[in-house]
Amino acid sequence: MGLAAMRKTPVSPPAARALPPFADHLDLMFGTGERAIKTPDPDPDKGQDHVEVWRHIDGNQRYFRKRFLQSKKLGVDFRYWTHREFTLLNELQSRELRHVQQYRGIRDLRLEGKQLETWDAGPDGDQWQQVPVARNGARLPHLFMDCAHWFGLARWLLAALEEVHALGFVHVDLKGDNFCLPAHRLREAADGYPAWIQPRWEELRLIDFAFSVWEDCARLSPDKPLPIGESTLRYQSRQLLAALAAGSSPAPDLGPTRGLDWRVDLFGLGFVLKQILSEVERRCFPEDSNWGWTAERAKRARRLIDDLQGWDQEWERRKRAAPVERPHGALIADLDRLLGEGDLAGSLANGWEIVRDPKWRPQDPGVRTPPTVPAPRRRERNDALPPDALSGMQKLKAIAKKTLSALIPRTEADRCRAAAEQGDADAQCNLGLMYANGRGAKQDDAEAVKWFRKAAEQGNAFAQFKLGRMYANGRGVQQDEAEAVKWYRHAAEQGYGAAPQPHLGKWYRKAAEQGYADAQFSLGWMYQDGRGVQQDDAEAVKWYRQAAEQGNADAQNNLGRMYEEGRGVCTKSLARAVKWYRKAAEQGYADAQQNLRRLGR
After folding, report:
1. Separation CA 260–CA 245 (nearest Å)
2. Residues sharing a CB contact under 8 Å with residue 224, sequence separation 6 or more, in sequence order
3. Could you say which DSSP state residue 458 is in?
4. Confidence of residue 2 (pLDDT cuts 50, 70, 90)
5. Which pTM does this prediction carry?
6. CA-to-CA distance for 567 and 379, rounded, in angstroms?
7. 464 near 425, Cβ under 8 Å?
8. Where are the alpha helices (DSSP H) in 60-139?
9. Whole-Å CA distances, 33 to 18, 195, 464
């Protein structure tokens, strides 16, 4: 094909027709028209510009074209990774694996690089988590919040990982948007998209393998370390972060990356499941027998997450190679026994109605699953100009910069540390937040705990709340719910009216002002669920009420539920339940809005 003809060949399909938000989301998941899925931002300074993905149609089958680009923003040519993903998919497909995305081919666009073509594997995990569903008139925000489907997701993702891990293959970047789960379309709605769906678990597939590691079949090139940056959300294991740091240093060492093993992916799976379980635990369980959740099943879910992510803690302590015997089989067998229980098996066998909510708005995907952040260009040792190449003005600027950096702290974290090390509790709390959130400092949970503890021991209520949260989630410390309760109580008992904290910036001050109510809500939730304390509905109501009166929507909704069910209150009262549901609903709290609709209010 000549250059002129090639330029006339359409590379990208036409833009998708305009649709209302929810219909557009369903089109993204189930649509049959050609559309852009991911394209570079026109202004590379404002968005990522390293990859594009388009949906195409071949007869009755959908497929996707994907290619990595030369990023102007980052100064990195990512096009090499398109062919690498093809190589990995080709090798995986030759082994006839059940849970791996199937490739269709690869197109060479010459000047524009290669495009990888893969057959549609179904909606991804993040897309499913934005679809409200219902069964027998009772609604859930998404189907994975059902107990059977939560454990089903764990079971089939483990099966998919066991399949590739047996080959020595490590996905590396496992998260909610890197696996797909197709569904049976049980009935079609008037808009042409499914009205009822049922997951096809056996066809769950892993996708997006460009940055995977499989040294036996696709050895990493010494001059091309994995171009993945560190995320501010903790879906990347310590083992992976250490490998990425070694690979992106001025003198790259790919040894740690080549040594990555299945523990990295189990940590990622634990992250996916923990996010959903946190969503389940944060909300009052709906009716219909709590969608299969019981206190014992919730404990089993938390133990499973601990089992999955505990391997990374073991690596951190000992820095040893992974055991030859993988835990996948035993975990799958245990999940199969659980999913064989009558009510859970019945739930998996039944479909779900897709709730077409006119008020639905798409959630920012970064809230649920962090995007894969491409790493910027490495600074090589020979990148810097020799001193004799600098002009006199450049030399003067360099001297001034060096002098100023010696006189004043370089970052907000440095300024905060200076005050924190002198014992300022507010600065200690601020520094802990920086480390916890990765804002102004490299994300480090252990360092966050250190500074939260120093501030908490001086009576800083917000630091006490954050320290309790770290213990509750096992971030930077061994998970300890009793210790979490202790610090929640310290913060909750200080109440909302504590003095302002002058050293906190605007963003942190706003968070601090909400911290005490959050601590009260968290303490109420611990009492309601019997986590770290003896279960006590009356004590839960006490703390929910204090948080609710300060405007905490979670607490308002939960307090409404306690009144509706007559738990921990003197008198069951539908009127008071409606009062608190309405207060939460007026803040846009979706569950409270659903509770009001359910009660006909």
Report:
1. 13
2. 80
3. T
4. very low
5. 0.64
6. 61
7. no
8. 80-94, 125-128
9. 12, 19, 52
Whether residue 402 has pLDDT greater than 80: no
Spatial neighbors of 555 by CB under 8 A, at least 6 apart, are 517, 520, 521, 524, 543, 544, 545, 546, 547, 548
CB distance 59 to 36 below 8 Å: no
Query: Using one digit for the tens of pLDDT, what is the confidence trace for 312-371?
Result: 988 988 888 899 899 999 999 999 999 999 999 999 999 999 999 888 877 655 556 767
> What sections of 530-586 are H helices per DSSP?
537-548, 553-565, 574-585
DSSP state of 67: E
155: left (phi over 0), alpha (psi -120 to 50) or beta: alpha
Distance CA 574, CA 329 (A): 48
Q: Label residues 232-267 b or e (16+ Cβ within 10 Å = b).
A: ebbbbbbbbbbbbebbbeeebebebbeebbbbbbbb
What domains can be seen in the chain, in order of their start residue?
Answer: 3-368 (1.10.510), 413-598 (1.25.40.10)
And the tokens for 70? 């030369």
Closest alpha carbon to 236 in 261, 265, 211: 265
Q: Which residues pair with 133 in a beta bridge?
A: 140, 354
For helices 537-548 and 506-529, angle between their N-to-C axes, nearest 10 degrees = 160
Query: What number of other Cβ atoms are within 10 A of residue 301's Cβ?
Result: 22
User: Residue 8's pLDDT is what?
Assistant: 36
Taking the C-alpha atoms of residue 528 and residue 535, their distance in angstroms, rounded to an integer, is 6
**Interatomic CA distance for residues 39 and 56, integer angstroms:** 14
Cβ burial of 111 (10 Å; 0-12, 13-18, 19+) is exposed
Q: Are 375 and 244 in contact (CB under 8 A)?
A: yes
What is the β-pairing status of strands 133-135 and 138-140? antiparallel
pLDDT of residue 110: 64
The DSSP call for residue 350 is: S
Q: What is the dihedral of CA 523, 529, 532, 534, to 10 degrees?
A: 100
Q: Is residue 68 a contact partner of residue 77, using CB atoms and an 8 Å limit?
A: no
d(CA 139, CA 137): 7
Count, residues in the chain: 601
What HEC string does 223-269 produce? CCCCCECCCCCCCCCHHHHHHHHHHCCCCCCCHHHHCCCHHHHHHHH
Note whether 280 and 525 are within 8 A (CB). Answer: no
Torsion, Cα of 310, 312, 316, 321 (10° steps): 110
Burial class (CB in 10 A: 0-12, 13-18, 19+), 529: middle
